[in-house]
Amino acid sequence: MAKKGMIERNKKRIRLVEKHAAKRAELKRIIADPESSDEEFYAAQRKLAKLPRNSSKIRVRNRCSITGRPRAYLRKYGVSRITFRELASQGKIPGVTKSSW
Length: 101
Fold this sequence. Notes:
The model has no long low-confidence stretch (mean pLDDT 94). By secondary structure, the protein is mainly alpha-helical. It has a two-stranded antiparallel ribbon with strand order 1-2. The chain is elongated. It is built from 3 helices and 2 strands, in the order ααββα. Helix 1 (4-32) runs antiparallel to helix 2 (38-50). It has helices spanning 4-32, 38-50, 81-89, and strands at residues 73-74, 79-80.
């Protein structure tokens, strides 16, 4: 089980990403636009730099939805490999069977 603080910190990052997503996308669009003037470009860069670091999507860590484990995460199922194996053995994941049975 992961530390509660790490799980909560990641949840906070997810909330910040959702909160600032539209503003961040607009600023990135201005920066990437070759038609924007130099003043607009640099103003957008400054505004983007002033946004919280944790509002960047890249800082969110994929974690197991049951245990909070940050490594060996399976995107398709939303759990870690260890939890996946336990659930598959119990028959709680539909369509997944152990091959050596």
